[in-house]
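User: Fold this, then the next.

Assistant: Folding the first:
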Amino acid sequence: MKYLTLAEILQPCVGQSWAVGAYDTCNLEITQAIVDAAEADLAPAIIMIYPNQTPQTEWPTLIRIIEAEVERTHIPAALVLDHAKTIDQIEAAIELGFSGIMIDASLAPLDENIVLTRRAVDIAHAKEVSVEAELGHVGQGDEISSEIQPQANLTRVDEAERFVYETGVDALAVSIGTLHGLYRGTPKLDFERIAQLRKVCPIPLVLHGGSDTPDSDIRRAIETGIDKINIWTDVRIPFLQDLKKTLEGPIQKIEVNEAFRAARMVATEVIRKKNMLLGSAGKAAQYKY
């Protein structure tokens, strides 16, 4: 299975006012929703595995599922390990065929983040695998009020310029006011910070916390310089809500496959709307894959 690297799938949208959706998956049905939406929309897709959701022992099985579904639909796709914390995780992912890894040392001091990211880049680039890193820290929406997010968590422009130069990273996740998951309050994105980061960073910029963020803010972030949007909660919740609704019926009449198939269709429609919002629909023709 030949995936596009993270750098390859992001390069066409840099400076073009559209972005690629990056969707986490943990099972067959979510994977099918991602690839079915991409096929229907003629869109590229970044498919991610998150270690906190999928234990490392289960990666090989999930990867086989992803490979089968991508081959079935023949879409331009990258396979990325999301929020890796250790070099061991990165080495395991590369061995299994991931085309991109995201190293998250965002809670470490700047110098430590640079050292760990540089090591990840050296390991990954030797195998022609791309690397995304995070500078600043995108917290959890259920832990921090979006209205009082500490300024210290936001990405500093001067540090970003140094970080990109010293690490050789292929994409940079920046903290500009979004949070992971659902918000407690109204998010306040720092669009001027995005514009400044865009000026000093010659690589794709990534927005984590794409769920529960107003569509207008997503569009403005993309038009200001964001190239990759990470989305999970906005897919997970409708999927589970539909499954829950089905399970409220007479349990003896519910077929497992039918219950999951219905939830999969709901997730597919959510992802299709995201692809339209991001502007990635119709962009598959821009890739050689």
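Now the next one, as you asked:
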Amino acid sequence: MSFALFLFLLLVVTGLVWLLEKYYLRRRRSRQARQPWWVEYSVSFFPVILIVFVLRSFLVEPFKIPSGSMIPTLLIGDFILVNKFAYGIRLPIINRKIIDVGEPQRGDVMVFRYPEDPSLDYIKRVVGLPGDRITYVNKRLSVNGKEMDLKAAGDYLHKERMSFAKRYEETTGEHPHSILIEDDAPAAVPFVKQFPFREHCTYNNDGLACPVPPGHYFLMGDNRDNSSDSRVWGFVPDANIVGKAFFIWFNFSEPSRFGSFQ
């Protein structure tokens, strides 16, 4: 059971008890009688649960980064905030959009439900919008025939592995962002899975070319040679979008990591 569903069920149960207490139980009790413990706890916690549910469903939701696929932008252990209304207001649990506010843009860091297992939340960077043609050949990204700007930015030290990777500044949207590329990693995409619309993609030893189908997005990790993303498991449907990541608020290993990011 997902945490969102658990929170919703808790909200329903405590809300029903709150209503029962307000309009029925309280009137039948004598003034000297105390509330049963289950009524007392439900009435006390219902407003708190309601506020938390509304905040994380429609405004902002916290997440923790579990892997290194978005290094150097996001590190393992980063606690981040995700804007839940940037791409439209969606009904909790079923994630159906009811109010269209905005659409993902190239360069956005987006949280979404993993297409192969929607119970898992993933985070990657949007590089392809519906209708775009994506090519990733010899580790250079092109969108609709235009190669994205790429500038060398020195080396990046992986502290856990004690190894270096080439760091670059890439521009896929309005602002540049950092990516990592390892020279000794092959250009070919390994372990490609079967996924919807894969028949329209072309894979070879130099990389891939894929048209992005309507209503879908192509996402990649900033740690390009250590990220399982749309190159491997395919496109992200609009229905799987959770929100736009925008702020790091804590990291136990590096408490100084605090603030917005591109």
